[in-house]
What we know:
This protein has helices at residues 22-37, 50-54, 74-77, 81-93, 106-117, 148-159, 165-168, 172-180, 189-197, 214-224; strands at residues 45-48, 97-101, 129-130, 182-186, 202-205. The chain is an alpha/beta fold. It has a five-stranded parallel sheet with strand order 3-2-1-4-5, with helices on both faces.
Amino acid sequence: MSRVSDESPASPASSDDPSTSEADASVSASEGTREDASALGNVRLVVFDFDLTILRIHSWGERVRPEDVEHRDLDRDVADLAFFRAFVLALRDAGVRVAIASFGQYEVIQRYMDRAFGDGQTVFGRGNVSTPSAVGFRDGTSVPGGKVPQLEALVRAVLLDGAAESDARKDEEAWRAATRAVAFFDDDERNVDVARRAGFAGATLVERDVGFTRESWEERLGEAVGMRGLHVPGFRSGSPTGS
Length: 243
């Protein structure tokens, strides 16, 4: 299991990094986007489960409260903090959207993401962090249909420009194309199986005693979703809080 404390600071470095010029950063991002485009296959949205996927712990099961998060060891709680940051930023550079679909508590997830990406970050927020309360249920409870209602809501919001459920289903071919463009990582085999049966062919099982780490990505997960060629650099200097 990867340890992040040797690879990166616990919180992102400032964007005011004198060692890298703005022009160099711009060229690097554009080159990365061109190189990664062919490695992304059909994927336009990557959705992560939270507990035992992004985290190596089960925050809901351990009754972590929102106010507890700021006092917790982020390197200990997150399966691979440095890689998760770098992976998400590489996807954003390549034009791929990111989201979280969890049965946990929204406020807890948001506090973790704020710590991971910095105060004022816009990488994860209510619009792309789906918990049961986003689909009419109470956070901390399973949703009938597994993660499918949350995944479908994210597709409508993120890939179909906020289309209403009835409108999204009018063009069945476009809907199927949208669901096939989702890579979904979850540690629960039932959630993965139900998602696949609903058309989310990119639903992929994460080992719950490992989580989403650089090793698991390079050894299995990248190939499983057809994105093995995506280059994910080590965590780089610069603020990850851009729009």
